[in-house]
Design a protein that fits this description.
Blueprint lengths: L1 H4 L3 E5 L4 H10 L6 E6 L2 H10 L6 E5 L5 H7 L5 E4 L6 H6 L1 H21 L4 E7 L8 H14 L11 E7 L1 E2 L6 H10 L4 E3 L5 E5 L1 H14 L5 E4 L3 E4 H12 L12 E3 L15 H4 L2 E4 L2 E4 L35 H11 L5
Parallel strand pairs: 1-2, 1-4, 2-3, 4-5, 5-6, 6-10, 7-9, 8-12
Antiparallel strand pairs: 9-11, 10-14, 13-14
Helix pairs in contact: 2-9, 4-6, 6-7, 8-10, 10-12
């Protein structure tokens, strides 16, 4: 990170959200020239500014990625962009599909256009496993956002901007995460609401998510999607049982007094998530603790780049699904104790 951001002007969109705020905090450790936060939620921006306690290298820009002119102005003289702004809640995106399109797709194109206009060095999109074979609006918009970023180099002309993406699952203790929801429900005595007994999801610790974003910034040549190899999968019902057993006594309650209620899958929700499609896996290579999906599109007559990945080792094709090898309850307990110790 030092070589990438030291002395640089960095813009973080959605910079008060769970991932955006962690990116801001992390970048500030490595002597950037300035960090700009572009955020549309006034109260979040104000609260975060107080949490940062007046750090002189931070600029707070109130604005929305949907507003192309605001994005263009906010990106003036910027070197590095982390694009974390997005609508991410599946049911809300289902009921408000054009709002998701406006933020996740049109907003992303606004970021690309402004980055090219200002000849930004690198731009990284924060994506989601829901972009893989999407069945819901949120996933479809994130897939298109990925496509916009990974293919932006085909029309950048003489601009130097390198666009790349990160893709990961549910970040532990992020805003609206299942872990936070379960914790709140347990504290209130239940019920703990579960959509389906067989549902599984990928989990990633916040620090690992930020590490993936940092490595993406360091390694990207343009058009890649970087995926953390060490994400774990959990059965949501098993996760709920572990949290009830661990947290109920903390709130003066008996674990067997916390009811579990099955409420059925929500609009746009599926039982399992995947990190990549079978077809994508045929273009994926391994690099240390990451899987890297190489660019999928070559324009007619375009010479393939002399890439550092040319001789890298591929992986065995397959579908990387959260239903495969989920942690058992003992492993979930140990995983949470290691990566979310404050929870217990």
């Amino acid at each position: 990170m030092v070589n990438c951001v030291e002395g640089k002007t960095v813009l973080v969109t959605g910079g008060t959200g769970s991932i955006g705020a962690e990116i801001v905090t992390h970048v500030l450790q490595f002597k950037p020239k300035v960090v700009r936060i572009l955020e549309h939620h006034e109260d979040s921006l104000f609260t975060f500014s107080r949490a940062l306690d007046g750090k002189s290298k931070v600029r707070y820009l109130l604005g929305d990625v949907r507003d192309a002119e605001r994005v263009k102005r906010g990106m003036e003289n910027v070197d590095i962009v982390f694009h974390a702004a997005a609508l991410k809640h599946v049911p809300l995106c289902e009921y408000n599909p054009f709002e998701a399109i406006s933020t996740n797709i049109i907003g992303t194109q606004n970021i690309i256009d402004a980055a090219l206009y200002h000849n930004v060095e690198k731009a990284v999109l924060i994506s989601s496993d829901k972009a893989v074979n999407p069945i819901n609006t949120m996933g479809a918009t994130k897939l298109l956002a990925e496509k916009l970023f990974t293919n932006a180099s085909h029309y950048r002309g003489m601009r130097k901007t390198i666009f790349s993406c990160t893709r990961f699952g549910n970040v532990i203790n992020s805003n609206g995460s299942v872990i936070k929801t379960f914790q709140e429900q347990i504290a209130q005595g239940g019920p703990v609401t579960i959509t389906h007994k067989e549902m599984t999801r990928f989990l990633i610790p916040t620090q690992e998510a930020i590490k993936l974003v940092v490595n993406t910034l360091n390694l990207a040549e343009g058009g890649e999607v970087f995926i953390l190899k060490k994400m774990v999968s959990v059965n949501i019902y098993d996760l709920a049982r572990v949290m009830i057993n661990e947290l109920a006594p903390k709130y003066g309650l008996r674990p067997d007094g916390i009811p579990v209620k099955f409420v059925g899958t929500r609009a746009g929700e599926r039982l399992h998530e995947t990190l990549m499609t079978y077809e994508e896996s045929q273009s994926v290579i391994e690099h240390e603790d990451m899987l890297i999906l190489l660019p999928q599109t070559e324009m007619p007559g375009e010479l393939p780049p002399q890439t550092k990945w040319r001789n890298a080792r591929g992986i065995d094709p397959g579908e990387f699904s959260s239903k495969n090898s989920p942690l058992n309850e003992g492993e979930i307990r140990e995983y949470l104790n290691r990566h979310a110790p404050s929870l217990f």
